[in-house]
């Protein structure tokens, strides 16, 4: 598609339906996450996203000029949402173990209720985009990596507190975040919403996984 035609479609999309820009952007990202999950990165196009929305391609181009922009937008949005949800729990009441449990439940709940977006974000984004990425995309990639580091640090801090309190086995806190988040993120592999599933059902699953995570860190007998 020529640059002129793309700009023309983008202008048309910007005028479409008088939508609020943020809600329109959010709607596009949600549709794109579903498409990426169904078709994979290579087979997805902006045409697919526009078709899923029942919208013009110009509406998508207005916010996301390329598939890479969409893909990165999903990753960045997912990480920002996780941080905004989990970070306040780090300074909440209770012991470090209790706060870790609350953080793990919040993470698990998010993965189950925002499944397409989080499934895309948990994937290995670098394999699609690091090679041949534009300077603009590299800048966004670096921002996403920083968000991931910041998110891991939240868990490292509460793990470190739990070790000082004597509840958790002493180990490098940052390294300990890997199996913790790995156990939580595995939800995106096996979890599928069931017909008639209630919010109580989701809470039960989230609690079971959080229990597993916290118990696995408890201080036990030393290894031989």
Based on the model shown, name its key terms.
single chain, 224 residues, mainly alpha, Arc Repressor Mutant, subunit A, Tetracycline Repressor, domain 2, 2 domains, 12 helices, 76% helix, disordered N terminus, Tet_transcr_reg_TetR-rel_C_sf, KstR2_TetR_C, HTH-type_TetR-like_transc_reg, transcription regulation, DNA-binding
Task: Characterise the protein shown here.
- The chain folds into two domains: about 1-65, Orthogonal Bundle (Arc Repressor Mutant, subunit A); about 65-215, Tetracycline Repressor, domain 2 (Orthogonal Bundle), CATH 1.10.357.
- It has about 220 residues and is mostly helical.
- Mean pLDDT is about 85; it is low at about 1-15.
- It has helices at about 5-15, 20-45, 45-55, 55-65, 65-90, 95-115, 115-120, 125-130, 135-165, 175-185, 185-190, 200-215.
């Amino acid at each position: 598609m020529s640059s002129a035609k793309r700009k023309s479609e983008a202008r048309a999309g910007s005028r479409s339906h008088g939508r609020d820009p943020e809600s329109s952007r959010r709607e596009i990202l949600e549709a794109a996450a579903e498409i990426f999950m169904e078709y994979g990165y290579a087979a997805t196009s902006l045409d697919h996203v526009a078709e899923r929305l029942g919208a013009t391609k110009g509406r998508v181009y207005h916010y996301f000029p390329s598939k890479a922009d969409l893909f990165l937008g999903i990753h960045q949005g997912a990480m920002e949402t996780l941080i905004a949800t989990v970070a306040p729990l780090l300074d909440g009441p209770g012991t470090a173990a209790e706060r870790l449990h609350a953080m793990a439940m919040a993470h698990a709940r998010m993965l189950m209720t925002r499944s397409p977006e989080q499934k895309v974000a948990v994937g290995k984004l670098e394999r699609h985009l690091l090679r041949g990425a534009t300077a603009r995309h590299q800048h966004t990639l670096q921002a996403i990596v920083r968000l991931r580091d910041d998110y891991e640090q939240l868990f490292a801090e509460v793990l470190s507190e739990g070790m000082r309190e004597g509840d958790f086995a002493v180990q490098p806190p940052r390294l300990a975040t890997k199996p913790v988040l790995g156990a939580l993120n595995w939800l995106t592999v096996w979890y599928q919403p069931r017909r008639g599933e209630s919010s109580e059902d989701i809470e039960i699953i989230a609690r079971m996984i959080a229990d597993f995570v916290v118990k696995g860190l408890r201080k036990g007998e030393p290894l031989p």
